[in-house]
Predict the 3D structure of the following.
Amino acid sequence: MQRFALIGAGFIGAVHAASLAAHPDVEFVGVHDVDTSRAGALATRYGTRVLDASEVFDASRLDAVFVASSTDTHAQHLRSAADAGLAVLCEKPIAPDLAEAVAVADHVRASGVPAMVDFNRRYDRDHAELRRVVASGGVGDVELIQLTSRGPSLPPVEYLRSSGGQLRDQTVHFFDLARWISGQDPVAVSVTGSALVDPTIAEFGDVDTSVATLSLPSGALVQIDSVRRTSYGYDERIEVMGSTGLVESRRQRRGNVARYGRAGVLDDGLHEGWFERVHPTYAATLAAFVDALERGVEPPVTLDDGVRAQAVAEAASRALESRRQEVVTYP
Amino acid sequence: MQRFALIGAGFIGAVHAASLAAHPDVEFVGVHDVDTSRAGALATRYGTRVLDASEVFDASRLDAVFVASSTDTHAQHLRSAADAGLAVLCEKPIAPDLAEAVAVADHVRASGVPAMVDFNRRYDRDHAELRRVVASGGVGDVELIQLTSRGPSLPPVEYLRSSGGQLRDQTVHFFDLARWISGQDPVAVSVTGSALVDPTIAEFGDVDTSVATLSLPSGALVQIDSVRRTSYGYDERIEVMGSTGLVESRRQRRGNVARYGRAGVLDDGLHEGWFERVHPTYAATLAAFVDALERGVEPPVTLDDGVRAQAVAEAASRALESRRQEVVTYP
Amino acid sequence: MQRFALIGAGFIGAVHAASLAAHPDVEFVGVHDVDTSRAGALATRYGTRVLDASEVFDASRLDAVFVASSTDTHAQHLRSAADAGLAVLCEKPIAPDLAEAVAVADHVRASGVPAMVDFNRRYDRDHAELRRVVASGGVGDVELIQLTSRGPSLPPVEYLRSSGGQLRDQTVHFFDLARWISGQDPVAVSVTGSALVDPTIAEFGDVDTSVATLSLPSGALVQIDSVRRTSYGYDERIEVMGSTGLVESRRQRRGNVARYGRAGVLDDGLHEGWFERVHPTYAATLAAFVDALERGVEPPVTLDDGVRAQAVAEAASRALESRRQEVVTYP
Amino acid sequence: MQRFALIGAGFIGAVHAASLAAHPDVEFVGVHDVDTSRAGALATRYGTRVLDASEVFDASRLDAVFVASSTDTHAQHLRSAADAGLAVLCEKPIAPDLAEAVAVADHVRASGVPAMVDFNRRYDRDHAELRRVVASGGVGDVELIQLTSRGPSLPPVEYLRSSGGQLRDQTVHFFDLARWISGQDPVAVSVTGSALVDPTIAEFGDVDTSVATLSLPSGALVQIDSVRRTSYGYDERIEVMGSTGLVESRRQRRGNVARYGRAGVLDDGLHEGWFERVHPTYAATLAAFVDALERGVEPPVTLDDGVRAQAVAEAASRALESRRQEVVTYP
């Protein structure tokens, strides 16, 4: 049994609260948020209590902390958890700034506490099966990976302005997937992008539609297309071509109903949004973390994984501007 | 808020306990089972208590009862709930014997308590969408319905011996779906069947592979194939052809991963068993019942629906033996 | 090189003319039709000549005759070919009347000439692959076969009036497929049918929507649904469930284009009509016949196959009326 | 009726000979090849005659020439046809060297003869339907196009050595498709590539696996992945995402048979090779050319289209080496 505190009671905090409450090996000790009424609502709903700032890193009553607060607070909470000797599961990114992320990862590593970044897409049932096929040699040597990341609607421009850009904010999940699936760290990256949906975002140097090409040490290539707004739902898809075959994690449909008529066959479309698609991954990510704690092994997604995906995003951001291939430098 | 007692803590009782515990408008008062240790385990897991026989129909502390005990006890519990003035949601069948089922349905109706049969397949997301398309005229007049009901493995022969036969035990769910989708009561039925998987079951007059053809009042036809053992997983599928189109609730796959190779494209297969397929329907069925109670309207699947599906199964059982079309008589 | 005459220059005769002209091992000697201008047009188009009635069975200049004239003339042409010592490939049926068909088949067999019925669906690429899988044990013992035969539009009522009924005219192709796929002769059949599209055809005892259930000697079951008019194109599909798996020859689409939008994913629909679907089978059927002639072996679809499918259709027609299972009697 | 000569009796010449022989409005006057025995074999098979070098541009007996000889002879034959006043349909490329291609195109244009490049993929049924959807506004403004071009096996290294490289030889077809589908001329291109299948080809600066990203004037992006050797058949696929939807020309399967088993559902795979996939496009391309001649309008794919696709390939070849985005310069 692992005793957890949750930090953050916003939209994603509420999702994690449900996972914490439902996990049979978790004791959900309490929830903390700078907005105490929001914390209170969550606590009531899941039969737990509100924790104040002094209680949330109390190692006498806790084993682990789940950090789901705003992005700019991750670094500080990770350090606090490490200092208190608490295991910590943290939403990405470790810190918006790569150098700070590296420093935090070093600090946490030095403390010896188990720590994990919530790259939840690794726990998508289909992506995980695809990776299992690749890792077991099911397609031979990896030669070409394609990842599609397309959200249904543009986030608010204020959000985008402080997001670090599409590559750091959205594509970073797929940089991680590329590393995880291939088992390789990209060595170089090229990017082409446009602001097609809203020209405003070009004003602060961002794009909403982009294509990144990564080179892996083996010579294999990775294509990632990132789109902020489709008009047909949430579109995520991975394809790995190897020397002996291809494996694909298909676009997921929201159902299995087909209508046959003169005009053709109309099938159920894609999920409305990213949440419908990735919802089951949250509980699975938590379960993987708890399992690692229970078995006393290193959590399956390390802070270093977070740092490395971020390093790819930095090089990609440079490439978008320079219009040339940029080498990826890992700290 | 509806206060529920659960009767039955076996496999399916445990499924319903999870639904009761998770429903925001349900207070899960307690669970009763003739095996008190089994009831105790469930109560512990879902933070509720064990109820004894005297407590389970106590209208001062309950609003509703969920009957998930063994088939031969359904009738008695339905009568007790009615006499106590409690709403009741009951697993099918009302009673193994049609005449007794009719008597119970009459008794409950006379009492005026809200009552519902757990024909959970009506709450399958895909089947419900198919029915919505049909009901809204999306395929015109219904002309031909095909239903496929195929389980992955033969249940134990002892179970089958007392099951009433494939048509009453398995196909009855699909007789209900045919009525629900078409909005019509079948008038006649023909059946052909064989014991192909295990010849033992032919000894007590049962079959494991059968085809039933129903005639509807409009002249439309219904085909239902029922199979006890496939070798490729759980196979359920509905197709409705009408005068202006066709709508299909497809075979559901267990995932969306495809492997391309020389031999072809290998996709994820069907669900392992019926439970993986229909799992989400249980919570949806409960939600529909609770919603009806909250709104003070009649539950969407009545005991009469249970009786009528059973009447079709009786005629079908006669047709299997007579090898001729039998008229369906509704009580 | 096989020297062929073609009898019949109507719609289907023109299709066969194209196959004869294109086959590298066929010398297309000429075409005969009671309508000589129709024959002349075909002859011009394919660089061959018109044959009169005396030339069409001239064994000194021909090796084989392809009979594609009207149904009521098949028997006579088959006898003439046999008497002339010419190999003969004939459209189904051998004769509308089963007894006459048997007599003709006996006559031709006695003559020793190679003869084949044009059950062209056996040469559909997908159906043939399905049968190969079944015959090679790919699904184990056959347990349940489903065949779907659905045309897009009702033929003219005058045609239907003299067609012998849906079971003899349309379903007979699928009785043949059931025999061919299973390698078994059906022993009994039940049928339920309705006139849903045009009530006029009920006046002469016919139906436009029907379901036939066959029993095979092994106990396996066969379902065949026959529909005269869909509103979504030509729908043909076969599925064979066996003790170790299932194989399906899917509905064929007219293309592979998909449109993703808010409403769902719209794929290309089915073929407009039966001709678009079965078109490639005609040349393949001819090729199989020519190949048998060249190799001096028995043609792969015999007149006896034609007779046996017809015998099933006769029993099915009785069952439609009697509303009970009828035993199939083979001559 | 258009009188055609065919130049070239190799593999692809034989394909065109079949199309010429089958087209109802074409008189297939004769075939020329430097290898007269090869020409003779084709002439015999299609009932036409062998033409010598002096006859093949004889405007008194011909209306058009189909140039299907080796790549290095295209330019000369195009000039000869223009000088003779004959319409000309020519395999791509016009000339291996871009400057020479421009000169030839200018020469032919000045002559006024109708001329067309055989970019046959435009006549793929599915690609054409996709383009029709895009052109009719079915997906709104084009934002992201993905093209996949993957052959099943590496061509002989000697062929590759003189092919001009993967981008000029293979990808050029898809540069043309990108222009045709979008209605825009790419302004810039980036390329990343590797020699993964055979390191020998890296010795002469070529790649077998590459990813090209094009920028269109509207800001829309185009991804093209080109692969010389898959292990799962011929893989070609196009997807166009626009502001209001997405349209896809799917991977084509070789059939429609599915096998369900414990391991999953095994479907028919992709076509063995490019020829099986694109076979029907050849006759369709010829038909489009003949139709333009008959109607006296400009052929639908001009020499300028050939030049422009080649210009993109030149910029792409520079980008592969420079590892930076290169501007496309059109002559």
